[in-house]
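In the current project phase, we have settled on a layout for protein records. A sample record is reproduced below.
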Amino acid sequence: MRSASLTLFALVCLAVFAVSACANNSSPYPQPPAGFDPIDASSASSPEPAPVIDPAGPSAPSLDLMITKSMLYAAGLKHGVNPYLVMGLAWHESGWQASVVSSAGAVGIMQVMPATAAVDGPALLGRSVDLFDPGDNIEMGTAILKHNLDHWHDDLAKALCAYYAGGAAVTDWAGMRTDCKRYVWAVYNAAMMFKEGRGPA
């Protein structure tokens, strides 16, 4: 009798736990944590020394990837955006390939639209940009991301949604389009990959 009561009690507890878990996680895309605060270059401590990699070894990243990573990191620091977020966004957008042009016409590492660069280059950078130049492309995309973060008060989901689909698509997380949620999570996961040292470079 006692074992039957304990079994019934355990089943009730499991049912309550399952119901509460489902109620708290009704979406397959819960809102991502806001774990990408800007890194202040002046107050940042010295990074951990990088592991020694044989540049000719089979597992060594290519020189192009290492240069691109440095450029992305520097752009993040310059514009007050967490560099790992910049790296993750760029990786998701293009795989850090400067020659990529999307079917919609977005160009380069950060996949910036030429019309956007024509307006936002002078507005955000005070100059025109050449999207086929990797340095300009990275700086333009990072400046747009910074502008979005400022505009939406550091709401990562809204800033990334705007980068992906434009400001008209931005809404609260619960009402955000599924493709926008997928994009936010993909960029966030890529950023975490770089933050944890699991990136390709």
Observations:
- The chain has one domain: 35-43+60-195.
- The chain is about 55% helix and 0% strand.
